[in-house]
Amino acid sequence: MKKFLSKYKIFLTLIFLFFIILINFNEIRSFARSNLSHNYKVFIKEIFFGKEYLAEIGFYKKLGYNKFQIPKTQFLDLEFKKIPLQGLKGFKTHYNMAFNKKGKTKKFFLEDLGNGIMIASASGEFKFSTDYSFNKFKDLNSNLSQLNVFQVVDIVKLENDIFVSFIIKSKREDCIFFGIANAKINNENLLFDIFYKENECTKETNGLGGRIYPYTFNEKKGFLLTTAATDKMKEKSQNLESFFGKIWFFELATKNKILFSVGHRNPQGLIVSDNIVISTEHGPYGGDEINNIKFGKNYGFPISSYGEMYKFKKDKEKFKIPKYEFLKSHSDNNFEEPIFSFVPSIGISEIEKISNDFSEYWTDNFLITSLNGRTIFRVKFDNKFEKVIYIEPMFLGERIRDIKYIKNQKIIILALEETGSIGVLSANKFK
C-alpha cells in the first residue's frame, strides 16, 4: 500500500510539472493554494527545494527576518554582488539554529586602506586588492605563524600600520592568551611585532571579542579594544583585576592600557561617531545589545541582562527556570541601560556608519550585521544616541562577519563567511 501511495504521489507531481509548462504559472499557484492539502503542498516544495531549505526558511519566517530581502529595501533598491574569495581556508565551527547542526565558516575581516582593501582571515591569511570589483586579490606574506597566532579576530589601519588582534593557544598549558600585533603597511610582506600580550589565561575559546577602533582619549592617540567574558568565564566581567569582559583604551606612543568600561559579555562591533562610542554585543540567549559606551561605566553583565543563560534553552524541559538568573533592569541596579536589546537575539556582529552621500533615503543611518540572523539591520539613532528611532531588517541569507563603507566608491562591502565571499552593495535606483 505504501509503495502504491509513493508511486501515486510521483505520478501527480509529474502531472503538476506538465501543467506548469503548458499554462500560466500564477494560475497554477492559485489553484494549488486553494485545492491542495497542506501536506501535499509541503511534499511538492520538498521535491523542488529540499527539506533543509524549507527548514531554514521556516525558521527565519518565525523570527521575522523576511521583512525585506536584499537587494530590495523599504525606500531603495540596491545592487548586490557576491564575489567568492579564492583559496580562503575554512576555520571555525559554528552552530546553525535553522539546520540544528554544526558547520565550518570562512571567517575573515575587512579594512579599507584608502587605496585598496585588505583582508585578514581568522587563520592568518592576508590579501590585498586595489581593484574595487574584487575579482583580483594579491596574497601577502606575513610572519604571524612565527608568533604562534591561533586565530586573528580583527584588523584595522592606524596611521601607517596594520594592527591585528589575535589569540594564542597554548597546548602545554591548555590556555588561551590574547594579543595585539602591528606591522608597517606593505604590499608584499607584513612583518608583525607584538604590540601587547596579555598574561591572563582563559580556557574559553567561544568568542573573545577583539574589535579594534581608532580613538583619541584625553588628547592621546590610540585605539579601543573589546574583550569578552562569555558564560564559562562570566564572573570576569565584573572583576577589575581581569582583562576580560571589558573595553580598553591603548595609547599608541606608550602602549599603556586604560580600563574604559566593564560589565561586557562579548562585544562584537565597535564604532566611534561624533566622539560617541557605540558597541554591539552578543548577550546570552535572547539578549543581544547596542550600547552607548561611556568612560568608567558598568554595563551589567553577568548581573543584569534581558536574555537568559543558554543552559536554560538546552534544558528547558528539565528545568522550569534557568540555574542562573539575570536581573531584568540595568538602571535599577546602577548599570547602564542598552540603547536597544534584541529579543530574540540576532547573532549581532559589526556596526558601520553609512555616509549621507550613499542615499538621500539613508541619512545618518548605521548598518548592523548579524551572524545567525543572516540579516543587515538599518538603524537610526536619536541625536544623543540614547534611543533607536527605527530599525529596518534586510535579509541576506548568509552569516555576515564584517562590514565597511567605502566612501570614495560609494559601496558597502561585507564579509560573508559561509561561502567565503565579499558582498558588495551599491545604490541602484530610487523607488
Describe the overall structure.
The chain is globular. It is mainly beta. The protein has helices at 2-22, 25-35, 38-49, 51-63, 310-314, and strands at 76-84, 93-96, 101-104, 108-112, 117-121, 126-129, 138-142, 151-158, 161-170, 175-184, 189-190, 193-197, 209-217, 220-227, 246-251, 257-262, 266-273, 276-282, 288-293, 297-298, 340-342, 348-354, 365-370, 375-381, 388-395, 400-406, 411-416, 421-430. The protein is built from five helices and 28 strands. The strands form seven sheets. Strands 4-5-6-7-11 form a five-stranded mixed β-sheet, with no helix packed on it. It has a five-stranded mixed β-sheet with strand order 13-14-15-16-20, with no helix packed on it.
Number of strands: 28
Stretches with pLDDT under 50, minimum 5 residues: 314-322
User: What is the spatial order of strands in the main beta sheet?
Assistant: 4-5-6-7-11
Number of H- or I-type helical stretches? 5
Distance between the termini: 55 Å
Bulk shape: globular
Proportion of residues in helical segments: 10-25%
Class computed from helices, strands and strand pairing: mainly beta
Quote the average pLDDT.
85
Radius of gyration: 24 Å
Please describe the biggest sheet, giving its number of strands, its sense, and whether it closes into a barrel. Answer: 5 strands, mixed
How much of the sequence is in beta strands?
35-45%
